[in-house]
């Protein structure tokens, strides 16, 4: 999401992006996820060039839904838009197939049967190998899988949901739906937009160069609202506990937050969005961190939504965590 300099919230130029991808693959990583809407398509172009020569090592994933122009067929999950979007993504990525093609959001204006039949055609043509979705509710997952079954089409195999100590709403219904219907999960924003790194403090304005500082200074109301939704009192309380836990364990707050997410029931993979090579190394170290059982229990407790019960290790509350967000997007 950060790759490119065409209006990204946290721009990363192509040279640094290539270093990040190379280091990630050298460390044993294999999934590189982007979307046609990231930095105006520049992200896909950079990713395509970065994996050239190592294409067979990469599970290349991208997404479609968000506007690509002003017209009524320039967005959504209709046959017209998805067909155009796939061809454009293939060109930008410089490849003749995409390993995981994902619906970025649900489309209320298109019958799900049309979407699933269109995606199935992509698989049958060899241009796409597997299908996934992002930011779908439990009901939308079920509707999609049933539609694929009814039309003898290819079903989804994965979901990209938001998940962190600050946003645990998927535990109530979405993770159980994924298990029931055979979807792996690639969770995004495990660091809560950077809040769980301990960079932000109560009563102090975020640094101008930080992610939250850039969001708060943005001309886009949605960006400012995103920052305000993250930097609230409950979230900062949780972040404070993470900082204290990291100090006790002799590690970083980011490592604690990533380790907690990685070990949660139902989580298949964790998406990180480094803007620099140093951030990547910190993320990789965090993903290799193991937490003591008592630490996990403590983090579970301090981040549990009010009124939530726990059944088989999963939160049954239908609401998001203390810092619940209503904005869809990849605030890695």
From TrEMBL:
Sorted UniProt keywords: Oxidoreductase
Cross-referenced Pfam families: Aldo_ket_red
TM annotation in the entry: none
Domain NADP-dependent oxidoreductase: 6-303
SUPFAM superfamilies: NAD(P)-linked oxidoreductase (SSF51430)
Species classification: Bacteria, Bacillati, Actinomycetota, Actinomycetes, Streptosporangiales
The protein's name in its UniProt record: Aldo/keto reductase
Biological source species: Planotetraspora phitsanulokensis
GO function terms (MF aspect): oxidoreductase activity
Signal sequence bounds: none
GO CC terms of this entry: cytosol
């Amino acid at each position: 999401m950060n790759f490119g300099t065409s209006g990204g919230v946290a721009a990363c130029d192509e040279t640094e992006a290539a270093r990040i991808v190379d280091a990630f693959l050298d460390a044993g990583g294999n999934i590189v996820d982007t979307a046609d809407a990231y930095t105006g398509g520049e992200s896909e172009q950079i990713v395509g060039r970065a994996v050239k020569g190592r294409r067979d090592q990469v599970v290349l994933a991208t997404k479609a839904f968000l506007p690509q122009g002003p017209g009524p067929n320039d967005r959504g999950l209709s046959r017209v838009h998805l067909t155009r979007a796939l061809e454009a993504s293939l060109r930008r990525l410089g490849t003749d197939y995409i390993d995981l093609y994902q619906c970025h959001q649900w489309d209320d204006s298109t019958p799900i049967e049309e979407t699933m039949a269109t995606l199935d055609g992509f698989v049958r043509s060899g241009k796409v190998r597997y299908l996934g979705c992002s930011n779908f509710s439990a009901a939308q997952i079920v509707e999609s899988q049933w539609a694929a079954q009814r039309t003898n089409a290819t079903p989804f195999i994965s979901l990209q949901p938001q998940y962190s100590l600050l946003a645990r709403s998927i535990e109530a219904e979405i993770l159980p739906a994924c298990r029931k219907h055979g979807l792996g999960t690639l969770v995004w924003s495990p660091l809560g937009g950077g809040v769980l790194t301990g960079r932000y403090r109560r009563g102090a304005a975020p640094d101008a160069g930080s992610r939250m500082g850039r969001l708060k200074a943005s001309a886009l109301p949605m960006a400012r609202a995103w920052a305000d939704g993250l930097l609230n009192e409950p979230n900062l309380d949780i972040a404070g506990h993470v900082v204290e836990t990291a100090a006790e364990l002799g590690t970083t707050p980011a490592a604690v937050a990533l380790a907690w997410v990685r070990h949660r029931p139902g989580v298949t993979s964790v998406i990180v969005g480094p803007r620099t090579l140093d951030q990547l190394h910190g993320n990789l170290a965090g993903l290799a961190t193991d937490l003591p059982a008592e630490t996990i229990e403590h983090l579970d407790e301090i981040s549990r939504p009010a009124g939530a019960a726990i059944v088989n290790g999963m939160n049954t509350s239908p609401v998001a965590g203390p810092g619940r967000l209503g904005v869809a997007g990849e605030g890695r």
